[in-house]
Amino acid sequence: MKNALSNLTIFAFLAFAAPSLAHPLPDIAVRASFEQNEEWTLQVEIDPRSFQPDPNVAPYLTNADLGVTPVDQQEKLKAMAREYIKKAVEVVLEPAAEVKPEFVWEFTAMENAPLKIPEDPVMLTGTWRSKLPAGTTGYSIKALKMETQSVPLSVLFQNTALGKKVDREQIRFPGETSYILDLKTYLPRTAAPPPITADSVQTAAADSDPMCALCGTSGGDTYILPVAASVAGIVALVTYMRKKRPA
């Protein structure tokens, strides 16, 4: 029991300590906006660190760096983004329709905000405006597996319909497909998974091993509080990550 408690406590500590050791891994953001008359805008955001062998330790390209980057190198970065997004994300419309976005690329801050201060991290934002094929009823994306990428990056799926954000966002990892957004109701066709809480973690642990330390049923009061603290720490971390990068 002591070893199980020690391992759990160490895990919880490392989970909180890890973000301070390196930059967070970048997401590939995919944002769709649907308007009247079947018009829509597809926007993608790529952190240039994504092009590096290990984005986790690669430094941000800052606004100050961009200011001294030659124009030909800036165009090279845009070309890299253009090829990268083709290998990273597949856009799916229902009924089956081929989608080949022709993005116009710009350097922006995160979430398509304008670059302001020298320390602002620079993103590559691609925007494509078009009209949905007649009869289109659903929209989704698939995060693709990239053989050349040693560190798999997640894709953030965000949508806006008729000027209002769709409540549900989603993170997809390589090989995973997003929910389908119904383009008649502008609602997901499938329900979101239940939220993770301390109770659900303990229930899952009890179901897998009724005598586990997480449940506090096979030992004295001396370890109930530390284990509860470890569970609370893990849940807090998951909750924080979900807020930052919704599931």
Give the N-to-C terminal Cα separation. 32 Å
Strand content: 15-25%
Radius of gyration: 22 Å
Class based on secondary structure composition and strand pairing: alpha+beta
Biggest pleated-sheet summary: 7 strands, mixed
Write the topology of this structure.
Layout lengths: L1 H16 L10 E7 L4 E8 L16 H5 L3 H18 E6 L9 E5 L14 E9 L6 E6 L11 E7 L2 E2 L4 E3 L8 E2 L15 H11 L12 H24 L3
Parallel strand pairs: 1-7
Antiparallel strand pairs: 1-2, 2-5, 3-6, 4-5, 6-10, 7-8, 7-9
Short recap of the structure:
This protein is of the alpha+beta class. Helix content is about 30%, strand content about 20%.
List keywords for this structure.
alpha+beta, 3-stranded antiparallel sheet, 5 helices, disordered N terminus, single chain, 30% helix, 247 residues, 22% strand
Please characterize this protein's 3D structure.
- The chain has 247 residues and is α+β, with helices and mostly antiparallel strands.
- It is built from 5 helices and 10 strands, in the order H-E-E-H-H-E-E-E-E-E-E-E-E-H-H.
- The strands form 2 sheets. Strands 1, 2, 4, 5, 7, 8 and 9 form a 7-stranded mixed beta sheet that branches. It has a 3-stranded antiparallel beta sheet with strand order 3-6-10.
- Helix 1 (2-17) packs parallel to helix 5.
- The longest helix is centred in the last third of the chain and has 24 residues, at 221-244.
- Mean pLDDT is 81; it is low at 1-21 and 217-231.
